[in-house]
Amino acid sequence: VEEELIVTTFDGVVIGAGHNGLTLAAYLARAGLKIAVLERNSEIGGGTSTEEPTLSGYRFNLHSNFFMGFRHAPMMRDLELHRFGFSYIEPPVQQAAAFRDGSCVVIHQDLDATCTSLARFSKQDAKTFHDLYHLYAVKMRPLLVSLLYNAPLPIDELLDRLSGPEAKEFLSHAQHDLFSVV
Fold it and tell me: Which Gene3D superfamilies did the record assign (predicted)?
């Protein structure tokens, strides 16, 4: 049996059907482009995948571990995700690390609960986490949001925004890895 070859042309191709690839494809399609999304796995991935890797009935988002601020992201509104049944649930416990001795560190939505968990191992680490959280989530939030969810700024305006004391503190951490900061 001879199969008919169907040729389809696209304006663009997005490689990967994780949340970033799907978001990009949705914006491009909304702008009128014909977009193909290619994913190597049989299901979409990234922060959009839920699996049962351990026991039946225990479902996890294996890649979805850092979505702080997602509820403020413009794509929620722009793409009208609620119309498709999407709702973003932020559980009170964000992530945890269990150790062989039975102890664990738990990152909560609640800052004080997280600091209490960290303090069981190191009061200094708990204080450092508290201070960094206050710097980034409170003092730096307006700057970060203005840089994340807007068109790139002209260089002179960007330098102006990055010249204040909070911005200098923020930039001083950019050259460090997590362990040297905490």
Answer: FAD/NAD(P)-binding domain
